[in-house]
Amino acid sequence: MGLIKEKPRRTSMQAKFVLSISILLLCEPAHSQQDRQRRVGFIGNGGVTQSTAPYMDCFRSAQKKLGWNEGENITTIYKWANGNAGIIPQLVKELKDANVEVIATGGTLVTQNVAELVKDTPIVFAAVSDPVSSKIVTSASRPTGNITGQSNNLSATSRKILEYIKNINPSVKHMALLRNPNNDGKLIEENEIMNSAVDVGINIVKVDLVTAKDKDAAFEKIRLSMPDALLVLHDFAALELKKALSDFAIENRIIAAAQLKEYATSGALLSYGLNYCRHFERVSGYVDKILRGAKPVDLPVEYPSSFELVLNLRTAEALKLTIPASTLTQADELIE
């Protein structure tokens, strides 16, 4: 019978060495995952302007707070449709060629198009009024597929804006509604406005604004309709014209109202709606979660928990309007 040779036993020093190497190998993927350069894409409905830049600053600031430093461990590639849905396929291709891991989108129109084109990369949307009605997701509580995000839910502001207008000036009977007819989100908000207008006794004339080039035609239609008030449904073209819209309204003795604070700070009498800086911070939070391993299906679509009322008292004085104390006390901010 041959001798059975025993396997040489490891010394305690050898065992410690093997254990150390094993730990390093186990930890290496997580370490490289955090330190390697991550790539995120963003496609916005508008363009790079003074109006959109602050929102991107908020997005980047939130990224930094979450540990993502641009140029160090993350690269964000921005693309802008400038209101032209026809170029979105090319923008998507450019992001895919850049091997982005997540695509963030801004606006209903862009999000709808990107969702149709991209099925294998997570998408996080912003500034979508009603993602279910717009057929972006089938369920807000448990979105299926590769998409989730933050709804601005601006349609929920409709009735309240009309009530604020009537509280400030009960004689308002006729209102111009400025909207982009090519944006499904605006059409959803428009339906809410039309239903609420009947209840508060306001007649509405619709005015189209697709791009800034439509300004003169839109202003002329408003003049001819001789409204008591103008309600601006937020869209990238309207945002670019916010100062011109406010000046036009004051010049023509019209109460101007809108859905974002930026319109009121530019001279509209009031705004009631979302804080867009916080909105884009929340979007950045969802991008962060996905980069760290979360799936869109595990991230319910979020809706804003509150809206802000901003009143421009300088404009009220210019229009010789006295804002009731009951409305003043509800304001989150007064511009004096």
From TrEMBL:
One Pfam family named in its UniProt record: ABC_sub_bind
Record-linked InterPro entries: ABC_transpt-TYRBP-like
Domain of life: Bacteria
Name this protein carries in UniProt: ABC transporter substrate-binding protein
Organism: Methylobacterium longum
